[in-house]
Design brief:
This protein is an alpha+beta fold and 179 residues long. It is built from four helices and six strands. The protein has two domains: 109 residues, no CATH class; 55 residues, B family DNA polymerase, thumb domain, alpha/beta motif (Ribonuclease H-like motif, 3-Layer(aba) Sandwich).
Length: 179
């Protein structure tokens, strides 16, 4: 186990070279940087998760931190990280994978069986432009068109709440009800 004071010389050297003050949030037991969505060989520095020495989970750039992520997805992701947080090091991750996989499979079964409350599956996104300006409509634009079809006014910046559906409709705006 390392002590924060052991990092002070390195932090001072970085600060002296860059003229940027360096702060230490904590020391990780382990940290993971998922691959870039554009190139799987390259991790992204602003998207990571890790476990501090005290067991606290640190998450940046994952769905669990986004405001538009449905509650069920955010909770599922955080529960996965909680399962993995039991590992004292990356070498121990494999020990915790069977329980983690079992949890994920159970959550998928509940979702397929319709046992997840629909309100926990709501996606919240804002319209970035007028509905007519979308060449390839986003899910939030599809939701906006549904509101327009019943006479509601929608505008850029407006929050759209919807759930993903099977079939041609793809999404269903929450305010009009979901069957």
């Amino acid at each position: 186990m390392k002590d924060q004071s052991q990092f002070l010389p390195l932090m001072d050297a970085i600060g002296a070279q860059t003229k940027i003050a360096i702060a230490l949030d904590g020391i990780f037991r382990w940290i993971a940087f998922p691959p870039s969505r554009k190139d799987a060989r390259i991790p992204v520095p602003n998207r990571y998760f890790g476990i501090f020495q005290n067991g606290e989970i640190k998450v940046r750039g994952l769905e669990a931190r986004r405001r538009d992520t449905p509650l069920w997805i955010a909770n599922t992701q955080m529960n996965i990280l909680t399962c993995l947080s039991k590992a004292e090091s990356l070498d121990e991750i494999d020990v915790h994978l069977p329980r983690t996989r079992a949890f994920v499979e159970e959550e998928k079964r509940k979702l397929k069986a319709g046992k997840i409350p629909l309100k926990d599956l709501i996606v919240t996104q804002s319209l970035s432009r007028t509905v007519e300006a979308y060449r390839s409509p986003s899910p939030s634009a599809h939701a906006a068109r549904q509101l327009q079809s019943v006479g509601r006014v929608v505008a850029p910046g407006q929050i759209m709440r919807f759930v993903y559906t099977r079939g041609a409709e793809r999404v269903r705006v929450w305010e009009l009800g979901v069957d």
